[in-house]
Amino acid sequence: WAKAEGRGRWAVYDPERSAADIARSALAAGLPAALDRGEFVLHYQPIVSLLDGTMLAVEALVRWQHPELGLIGPDRFIGLAEETGLIVRLGAWVLRQACRDAEGWRRAYPEARLVVSVNLAARQADDPAIVETVAEALTRTGLPAELLQLELTESAVMGTAGEPLRSLRELADLGVRLAIDDFGTGYSNLAYLRRLPIHCLKLAGPFVEGIRADGADVAADHRDERIVDALVRLAHALELWVTAEAVETEAQAERLRALRCDTGQGRWFGAPVPAAQIRARLAGGGEPA
Ligand code: C2E
Ligand code: MG
Ligand code: MG
Ligand code: MG
């Protein structure tokens, strides 16, 4: 069998194709069946008021419960799903599931008015059917439009044609909130902020990372902090909410609050967790479970 093994090795050995490439295509090939078999799950991460610690929203973050590889994070398959086009179908599933979970929380805890925030990939936002897909997720689940927020990166907003997507106005007309994800890391064409009905800016992790109230590791010129300060002022001048992403320490949370940032998200406020744990946190009055 040594010979067979040797032959097998030759069959897969191709200097043009690395082992990582092969693993990538195997993963990509498995995506459609995984969707049909219901192997995707949503985890939710709290988005918390920096003023009083109330959980105001949760971000839906997709994971793949792979039968052999275990729980796989989106950074390993969202790009593949975009390349193959499956993102449109996967994204529609995410939207519907997130709206269904949020409607369940709303029925149990209407006074919490918990918003669910869903990521839209560029290719998904550019899909002609996106407005219909979102409208359908809302009507099928009964979730009020104002309890759904859609997150798009700056490049997704600008679309493949380099023009702000027209569908965004129609989405806003449905009554859903629009947020710019990872704000400050794309090639910002700030003109879209004048023209589009955006509700929220999410400040990208790398800026937040540079903020440390203890002063221990702060770069001498406080550059990240000054950028956050300026972006919060910009957002507020335009009457937009600001969410700081990747808040990992109490010191960061305190500093962000001093900078008038409205909400925070990150390990300090709670990691992404299954839907049941969000319900438990609502039952506990919104404080960390
Ligand atoms: P994102 O939208 O910027 O989501 C925030 C990411 O930061 C999440 O990674 C989250 O787990 C991670 N994070 C949470 N707390 C902390 C923290 O304290 N520090 C740091 N450094 N990071 C933290 P995750 O879940 O691996 O998702 C990665 C990206 O995958 C997301 O980035 C989003 O762009 C994409 N993604 C996730 N779910 C979906 C989805 O349903 N549809 C689409 N199109 N993209 C998705
Ligand atoms: Mg996001
Ligand atoms: Mg982000
Ligand atoms: Mg990201």
TrEMBL record:
Q: Which residues form the signal peptide?
A: none
Q: Where is the EAL domain?
A: 24-286
At the top level, the lineage of the source is Bacteria
State what protein this is by name.
Diguanylate cyclase/phosphodiesterase with PAS/PAC sensor(S)
Per the UniProt record, the source organism is Micromonospora kangleipakensis
Which classification does the entry list for the species?
Answer: Bacteria, Bacillati, Actinomycetota, Actinomycetes, Micromonosporales
Where in the full protein does the shown chain start and end, and how long is the full protein?
A: 434 to 722 of 722
